[in-house]
Specification:
Elements lengths: L2 H12 L6 H18 L6 H11 L10 H4 L5 E4 L1 H17 L10 H15 L4 E4 L3 E8 L9 E8 L1
Antiparallel strand pairs: 1-4, 2-3, 3-4
Helix pairs in contact: 1-2, 2-3
Length: 158
């Protein structure tokens, strides 16, 4: 599949009015493919991390967020501030590739997109390398509503 084919298929999903989880996973997989083709993962570290997190059963390459996560205990956490950085790099990526999307059209479409991201990342552990390895698993809390970005965090030494 050529670079242009990937971009065309990606654009067709980005044009949708309502995204489903399968659409978001597809978007992230195509972004990751373009990052690899362009060899510019280092320019989009946060975006690349989120793409990888969505496509793997467990992530152990957490270097850039390890400082944030290393002191995390068990409890409730909002990952919404992580989404702010994700959104910024996502917009930069779209601009670089001359792609458009309705995701950032209004708060509702963006919140829905974040909700889907939360569903995708829920129960996919991150392995944080500190003095000892920690396995951090986030679980989306349904009690906070459909558009919640709140997770419970379970931390285990491994």
């Amino acid at each position: 599949m050529s670079r242009n084919d990937i971009k065309e298929k990606l654009q067709s999903i980005l044009d949708k009015d309502v995204l489903e989880e399968t659409d978001v996973i597809y978007i992230l997989s195509r972004i990751r493919k373009l990052l690899e083709i362009d060899r510019n993962k280092t320019d989009f570290k946060i975006l690349n991390f989120y793409c990888n997190w969505a496509l793997h059963a467990q992530i152990d390459d957490t270097d850039f967020i390890s400082k944030i996560l290393e002191n995390l205990g068990t409890g409730m956490l909002s990952l919404m501030h992580f989404y702010l950085d994700f959104d910024k790099e996502f917009k930069k990526f779209l601009s670089k590739h001359k792609l458009t999307t309705k995701i950032f059209l209004n708060n509702q479409t963006l919140t829905n997109f974040h909700h889907i991201l939360s569903e995708i990342y829920s129960d996919t552990p991150l392995i944080v390398k500190t003095i000892r390895k920690k396995k951090i698993t986030f679980t989306k809390l349904e009690s906070f509503g459909k558009n919640s970005g709140f997770f419970s965090a379970r931390c285990e030494e491994i």
